[in-house]
Amino acid sequence: MNETIVFDIDLLISGDPKIAIYVDDVFMNSTTFKHSLDFGNHVLRIVHSGKTNHTPDQHVIINSITIDGINIRDMIWTDSVCIPQYLEPWASEQRAQGIELEERVIGETFLGHNCEWQLPFTSPFYECVMNHVR
Predict the structure, then answer these.
(1) Cβ atoms within 10 A of the Cβ of 35, count?
(2) How far apart are the first and last CA of the chain?
(3) Which class does domain 2-86+103-133 fall in?
C-alpha cells in the first residue's frame, strides 16, 4: 500500500548555498511537492553544501516544515538530526583548542555548516504523527 504526501518546506536562505531536498534517495525540485510513498520507513533530507572559508555568512534556516497540512515543529526538535561537515582549517583549529565539535546535532534548524539534515518518518504519515504525540 502507499499514500501521496504533500510536503511544504519553508527555508530562510542567506548567501548562495546549494540546497538539495530528498525523500529517501529521490531528489525533489522544489520546497513544496507531492510524493507517493510505500507504507514503511522513510527519511526527509536537506543537504546544505557550497559553503567555503570565503562564504562565512552563508547559511540555511529551516523555518517550518508542513506535511499533509500538519506543522511538524515538535517532530523536528526531537526526531531530526543534522550531520555537519566542518570546513578545514577551522575544524582542526577548534579541536586544537580543545573544542569538541558535534558529529550529530539533534533538533538543529540553523544549518550554518555544510551538512545533511535528516528527519526519519513513517508512512502512513498520520500514524507517525499519532505515535509522536503519544
Answers:
(1) 16
(2) 24
(3) mainly beta
